[in-house]
UniProtKB/TrEMBL annotation:
Keywords: Membrane, Transmembrane, Transmembrane helix
Annotated InterPro entries: MITRAC7/Phoenixin
Signal peptide: none
GO cellular component term, pick one: mitochondrial inner membrane
Gene coding for it: smim20
Superkingdom of source: Eukaryota
Transmembrane region(s): 32-53
Protein name: Small integral membrane protein 20
GO BP annotation list: mitochondrial respiratory chain complex IV assembly
Pfam family name, one: MITRAC7_Phoenixin
Keyword Transmembrane attached: yes
Lineage: Eukaryota, Metazoa, Chordata, Craniata, Vertebrata
Length: 94
């Protein structure tokens, strides 16, 4: 009744050994760490093709946009009253 150990602890000769509770807690902590790590890995894997690849391969995207925009008259494409779009990669020259 006066023991500070939980009912799952294993005790030998009055001394507390590595308890089954600590083992269960370690296994549970490992599972939580693996789940959290898996979630972080999944988010990173999802962001790579969306954000990081285009950020590191700007030249390829510029070439693709040049081909896609070839032969397009910007004034014909834009709605009335909307500013004509320009190259987002072009410096402002300031």
């Amino acid at each position: 009744p006066g023991s500070r150990h939980c009912k799952h602890c294993v005790r030998f000769g009055g001394e507390r050994e590595v308890s089954t509770c600590n083992r269960k807690k370690n296994v549970q902590n490992t599972k939580i760490a693996l789940i959290f790590g898996g979630f972080v890995t999944a988010v990173a894997a999802a962001f790579y093709p969306i954000f990081f690849y285009p950020l590191t391969h700007k030249h390829e995207y510029r070439e693709v946009q040049k081909m896609n925009r070839a032969g397009i008259n910007q004034a014909d494409v834009q709605p009335v009253g909307v500013k004509i779009w320009s190259d987002p990669f072009k410096s402002t020259g300031k």
